[in-house]
Design goal:
seven-stranded parallel beta sheet; DNA-binding; six-stranded parallel beta sheet; about 50% helix; about 650 residues; globular; alpha/beta; 29 helices
DNA sequence: TCCGGGGTTTTTTTT
DNA sequence: AAACCCCGGA
């Protein structure tokens, strides 16, 4: 028996007036949110600021940074909030656990992977990798079936997306299939068999896809009480940003992690939920509110946009969202402009010319953004801006890590980390002449067998090589040389010098540009000593470009609306607002228009001072669109705009 | 049986 | 830009 004296640590003083930068609504949300709280925050209402000051508040109350968990939609958002909170508190907040759900779950799993049947050196499959593995498994199952069954088996990407939907149906396969396409229910047995095998294969190969990062973390928490106890003890406070775009599993992870202290602070706006295709479930907001004792705060004052813009925004609040009226703080400003152009060509000209005028009037290029529904609309604008010498950056487009050459190089790094990663083996083997699908899969299989029985994969290559040509000799030599290297950049440089640069110039017309990308990868890698950290970071990073902070220079931003979420510019052009382009043709066909409405809402609320909504005289140039438009009267966003709130221009 | 060249098609958004 | 299909040749 001994007595414990409670020794209370006095928090270090934080300046008294720190909250003066917040208005009443915001202060209330920050200071009075205890236990479970949800902040319903309209666009431009200072949501980032509120989360930032919540961190400040917790720190000033003596909560240790390492006991705060911050989940955000992008890593950049987390970084920004932490940097600002550090400025205010003067405290080093490096110990806070913060990032996207995926990166945080990855962090947990690197520690506890064995508890869910994995090794800690698992590698992560991105979307393409998942598809590759699914294709592999699919053809294996297919080969066991009579040929006439073949036509009933859905394509790999369909299978991948069904598999992904199970995150929200909580492993109910028939519900997931139904959500994708009810007709596919006839093939339930086959789909079920393929997906089961896909799961087994991932485990065998020690790889996780994006969903696994979440699902396995949830399983870890649900099934391993000691781990759950540790983590839920550690995190006294859990902060979640963009809560409307979380899925069911993410929400459940939050509840598990908060099971000890019960402090959850979530921020979101149901009107801005735009990721349902990926499982986002704005009903999470309702579920959260419906738990007794939850405190609800609303912050609906808009600081971002001029009153003219806010008036339009209020007129276009998505129909399926909690009714709300934003209150403008800023004065009038110029009315938003609806611009009718003849075709896409003219639209590009208009955008280019107008940007030049705005800059002449004193705006910076970096104050301007062009937003579109799909990537394909960036092309014309890009050409136009290039021809006028207007500097721009593309936020969307092919992601860096999805470029073929980057994936090639990363595949080498991945097998060093995890030699069971079959997708990577197939990828690198096929770089060598004379090696195709068959030999590559055979190599991957052989490697798996050898490695599992403790034999070096170099011997596995020998085994395959002797039965075929000597195409794999070079690969063996490369891997042998790589064996002693540890730092990721060293490996990349070696690969480039040894064969990859040569391969590029033989294979691609634009070899120089691709080589440059690889050197950029090496440069990124040089900041990491640890291979696993580098690979994890780069596969869970949403945007490599912004990570390295090259956006200091003065450039116009081109982006999809999805990627523009959370950002703002003085002048925003929303282009190709034609039924079939935006709202998107597939959404029109599927009657999935609520989300398009929300997307339009997100687009127009990015603008601070000037908003241009541009459409074409004859609508979409997409040849597939006409049929759908017939059935979709009233889905032209332009028609919904109240005439008195905007100006009309015509080129 | 397997590889690879040549030609064709692609419908969205992405951690 | 890359995935898919078809077919000639090894």
């Amino acid at each position: 028996m001994y007595k414990v004296k409670k020794y209370k640590l006095v928090p270090r003083a934080v300046p008294q007036n720190i909250y003066e930068k917040l208005d009443e609504e915001q202060q209330n949300a920050v200071l009075n949110s205890e236990g479970r709280s949800i902040i319903i925050a309209g666009p431009g209402s200072g949501k980032t600021r509120v989360v930032t000051y919540k961190i400040v508040h917790l720190i000033s109350r003596g909560v240790s940074p390492k006991r705060i968990l911050l989940m955000t939609f992008t890593k950049a958002a987390a970084k920004e909030m932490i940097a600002r909170a550090r400025q205010v508190t003067g405290r080093d907040l490096n110990e806070m656990v913060a990032g996207t759900f995926h990166s945080v779950c990855n962090l947990f799993l690197r520690k506890y992977a064995q508890h869910v049947g994995y090794d800690n050196n698992f590698t992560i499959l991105d979307r393409d990798d998942s598809k590759d593995l699914m294709r592999l498994v699919r053809s294996r199952v297919l080969s066991r079936m009579p040929a006439e069954m073949k036509k009933f088996i859905p394509h790999p990407e369909v299978l991948v997306s069904i598999n992904s939907y199970m995150m929200n149906t909580l492993s109910d396969l028939s519900a997931a299939i139904k959500r994708k396409n009810p007709m596919l229910l006839d093939n339930y047995e086959i789909i079920s068999e393929i997906l089961a095998e896909y799961s087994i294969e991932k485990r065998k190969q020690n790889v996780m896809d994006f969903d696994d990062l979440l699902v396995n973390t949830l399983r870890l928490l649900q099934e391993k009480s000691r781990v759950k106890e540790r983590l839920s003890e550690q995190f006294e406070w859990i902060l979640v940003d963009e809560f409307q775009d979380t899925n069911k599993v993410q929400y459940m992870i939050v509840e598990e992690l908060a099971s000890k202290h019960g402090n959850i602070f979530v921020v979101g706006d149901d009107a801005q939920s735009i990721y349902s295709f990926r499982g986002a479930r704005f009903e999470n907001v309702e579920d959260f509110i419906n738990i007794p004792g939850t405190r609800i705060f609303r912050i609906q004052t808009n600081y971002r946009s001029t009153q003219s813009i806010v008036e339009l925004v209020n007129a276009l609040i998505p129909s399926k969202s909690v009714p709300k009226v934003l209150k403008a703080i800023r004065s009038d400003g110029e009315k938003p402009v609806v611009v009718k152009t003849f075709d896409e060509e003219e639209q590009a000209q208009f955008v280019g010319q107008r940007i030049e005028e705005l800059v002449e009037e004193g705006m910076r290029f970096s104050d301007i953004a062009v937003l579109y529904r799909t990537h394909k609309f960036s092309m014309r604008i890009e050409m136009e801006l290039a021809s006028r010498g207007i500097p721009y950056r593309i936020l969307s487009g092919l992601r860096f890590v999805e470029l073929a050459h980057i994936k090639d190089v990363l595949a080498f790094l991945r097998i060093v980390l995890n030699p069971l990663d079959a997708v990577s083996w197939v990828r690198i083997a096929k770089l060598f002449e004379g090696v195709g699908d068959k030999t590559a899969s055979k190599l991957a299989d052989t490697v798996a067998r050898y490695v599992q029985s403790g034999v070096s994969y170099l011997d596995a290559i020998d085994a395959v090589r002797s039965s075929r040509k000597s195409a794999l000799s070079k690969l063996r030599e490369i891997l042998e040389n790589m064996k002693d290297m540890e730092s990721p950049s060293e490996i990349i440089d070696f690969l480039m010098d040894d064969f990859y640069e040569e391969y590029l110039s033989y294979r691609y017309e634009d070899a120089d540009e691709r080589a440059q990308d690889v050197r950029k990868l090496s440069e990124l890698a040089s900041r990491y000593e640890n291979l696993e950290r580098f690979i994890s970071d780069i596969t869970t990073a949403e945007n490599v470009e912004s990570e390295e902070g090259t956006n200091e220079s003065d450039r116009v931003t081109l982006s999809t609306i999805h990627q523009a979420k959370g950002l703002e510019w003085k002048a925003v052009f929303v282009i190709s607002v034609n039924p079939g382009d935006f709202p998107n043709a597939i959404a029109l066909r599927e009657g999935n228009l609520d989300e398009e409405e929300r997307l339009f809402y997100v687009a127009i609320t990015r603008a601070k001072d000037q908003l241009y909504i541009v459409h074409q005289l004859f609508g979409s140039a997409n040849p597939y669109v006409e049929n759908y438009i017939k059935f979709s009267k009233g889905m032209n966003f332009i028609d919904r705009i109240p005439e008195n709130l905007v100006e009309f221009w015509e080129t």
